[in-house]
Specification:
Order of helices and strands: EHEHEHEHHEEHHHE
Distance between the termini: 28 Å
Strand order of the largest sheet: 3-2-1-4-5-7-6
CATH superfamily: LmbE-like
Number of strands: 7
Strand content: 15-25%
Bound molecules: zinc ion
CATH architecture: 3-Layer(aba) Sandwich
Amino acid sequence: MTDEKRALVIVAHPDDMEIGCGGTVARWVEEGWAVWLVVVTEGGGGGPDDATDVSPEARRRISELRKAEQHEAARILGLRGVEFLDYPDGRVEPTLELRRDLVRVIRRYRPQIVVIPSPERNWVPAYQVGRYHPDHLAVGQAALAAIYPAAGNAWDFPELLAEGLSPHHVQEVWVINAPVLNHAVDISTTLERKLAALQAHRSQFGDRFHLLKRWLRQAALERGVRHGLQYAEEFHRIRLREPFPFRR
Ligand SMILES: [Zn+2]
């Protein structure tokens, strides 16, 4: 294995990465990191809330459009690649099947850092519904379980060994929207690229993009103020130690 710096972002939906960590990802790319994105769902539930045609065909069209938008956003941020696991949007559960699929991508990309959504809600200072879509929580729970212990343990999902995917120890987990935030990234130089990438998701924001832009700029400003920075993104950063010196 080379000493290339590699990060993997795991999210539920197209656009989750840009909103949660787009500025951080842009910085990593600038600093020479190889960054990949894995989107768990097909994005097919992202049509208008008041749609009348919710047929499988309509769903497929939305999914294709959103995937194209996600690829465009990833290109703007300079990602190495995007992969969709094609779980149905709106129906993600933290199943063993999802855990195994995430172990598979972690062992394949072998990142030092994995970014995930929070598996838990934060009620303080006020509950923010959009941050804790049930798919986000399910992906957060499955991803954390995939990172530890399964990705690093040959005994978990032995079928992956047969696929040539040996155990891999992730060094750090960065959790978006965690109830406790302990790390800030200065995105003052990459905020504009984050917003440009987000704008690629035209089907989601369209002519309301200016409102989202204002809200995200304000959020980045408030986070920055807390850390003496102009604009920031915040995470709960977990540094994983070497494997425990005892058996489970
Ligand atoms: Zn989402």
